[in-house]
Write a structure and sequence with these properties.
268 residues; alpha/beta; Rossmann fold; 2 domains; 4-stranded parallel sheet; 10 helices; 46% helix
């Protein structure tokens, strides 16, 4: 079963997409064809979006699902009248919140992903720049300034998790790949000694690691199952000996890895 889905927003569409996709995961038997319609800031843009939604209905012969986080009543009215299945995610909660707080909402667009809080935005940019310059052990000079240092074998998910931690949590996240030299010493690399209290380990099932590495470098020992088993075993032994908490990332999404790291390290 297939169904067209539209996410309509007066800003980037990140919020409505996240909320809508979260709801749609509860219907695994349906294949959703998703499209985001961002920056629907005025009635002209709303009418254009409504035309796209109506065209999809005529083409498919079935009404699409439309998720909206529009804050302007006029533009939301246009979208609401374009299709019979429109889910106003803000409208559902704004009125009850106004009653609970005893005040009217600002009905301001883009409060979540805009630059309303300049300090928070700059903090996120600082974290992202720091993370990019400390990816894959590129810079060890000021590693102690990290909020968290992810350690593990190559291709176990360190880099995407660090980027997510920087973007979503504004955390200075560094990562360090364990190498043959580190395994030979069988102890924590000297470069990490001064930030031991910030280290969090990532591991992965050797079979999955071999598949991931094979896509990047199919030839040589790097991607063989035997090499992957050896590295994972040595890395986990090091984590246990050094009393470093670690997480198996094999079946865990980047978002879940990041949330687990934040929880376990007590980060804010």
């Amino acid at each position: 079963m297939k169904r067209r889905v539209f996410f309509v927003s007066d800003r980037t569409g990140i919020t409505v997409q996240a909320l809508g996709q979260s709801l749609l995961t509860q219907f695994p038997d349906t294949q959703f064809n998703m499209r985001t319609l961002p920056f629907v800031k005025n009635q002209v843009a709303a009418r254009n979006a409504a035309d796209i939604i109506r065209a999809a209905r005529e083409e498919d012969g079935v009404a699409p699902l439309v998720f909206s986080t529009l804050t302007d009543p006029a533009t939301q009215y246009i979208i609401a009248n374009s299709n019979e299945h429109v889910f106003d995610l803000f409208g559902t909660f704004i009125e009850p919140l106004e009653d609970a707080l005893g005040q009217e909402s600002s009905h301001t667009a883009g409060r979540m992903h805009g630059m309303a809080d300049v300090t928070a935005y700059e903090r996120r940019l600082t974290a992202l720049n720091f993370t990019l310059s400390h990816d894959d052990g590129l810079s060890l000079r000021d590693l102690s300034e990290s909020d968290v240092v992810l350690v593990g074998v190559s291709r176990c998910g360190k880099t995407p998790t660090c980027l997510y931690l920087a973007m979503q949590y504004s955390l200075k996240a560094s990562n360090y790949p364990l190498t043959e030299d580190d395994f030979e010493r069988s102890r924590l690399p000297p470069a990490l000694e001064n930030c031991r209290d910030k280290i969090y380990g990532l591991t992965i099932q050797p079979e999955q690691l071999s598949r991931i590495r094979h896509e990047r470098r199919p030839h040589g020992a790097y991607s063989t199952l035997a090499q992957c088993r050896r590295e994972v075993s040595l890395a986990e032994t090091m984590f246990r000996n050094e009393k470093i908490a670690f997480l198996d990332t094999t079946t865990v999404s980047i978002e879940e890895i990041a949330a687990t790291v934040v929880r376990d390290r007590g980060l804010r």
